[in-house]
Design brief:
With about 120 residues, this protein is an alpha/beta fold. The relative contact order is 0.20. The chain has a single domain, classed as Rossmann fold, CATH 3.40.50. Helix 1 links the parallel strand 2 and strand 3. It is globular. The protein is about 30% helix and about 15% strand. Residues about 1-10 and about 20-25 have low confidence and may be disordered. The chain has a 3-stranded parallel sheet, covered by helices on one side. It has a two-stranded parallel sheet with strand order 2-3.
């Protein structure tokens, strides 16, 4: 795993379900992944082109604001998922995921970029 040096607007933050299938010979992943994915799926360490990113204080503040906005709309999401969204927004990353529940974020943050994968 390498550490991030700079952010590119079209880089993709890979959500945990976008890592599957985990056959290294069949899948070459690159982009970014949050540390939470590695805690839950340590095999992601096998993908040398993935850059691990960590949340900072501003990410937590942004996630709280997103969480409150979603709650007001009656569309709450799990805390870790909201934190991942905040990390994407603040770094201008596209979230690549199979979880379509992330699309509800667009109702409270129109600058959120998402790419649903199959």
């Amino acid at each position: 795993m390498k550490k991030p040096e700079s952010w590119n607007g079209r880089d993709c933050l890979r959500h945990k379900r976008a890592h599957r299938p985990f056959k290294k010979s069949k899948l070459d992943l690159n982009g970014f992944t949050p540390i939470f994915n590695l805690v839950e799926f340590p095999k992601a360490l096998e993908f040398e082109q993935l850059t691990v990113i960590y949340p900072n204080l501003e990410d937590y503040q942004e996630s709280l604001e997103i969480s409150l906005a979603l709650l007001q709309k009656g569309k709450p999401l799990p805390a870790v998922d909201i934190l991942i969204v905040a990390m994407c927004i603040r770094r201008n990353l596209v979230l690549c995921t199979k979880d379509n529940h992330f699309t509800s974020i667009k109702s409270v943050r129109n600058n959120f970029k998402i790419e649903l994968t199959k």
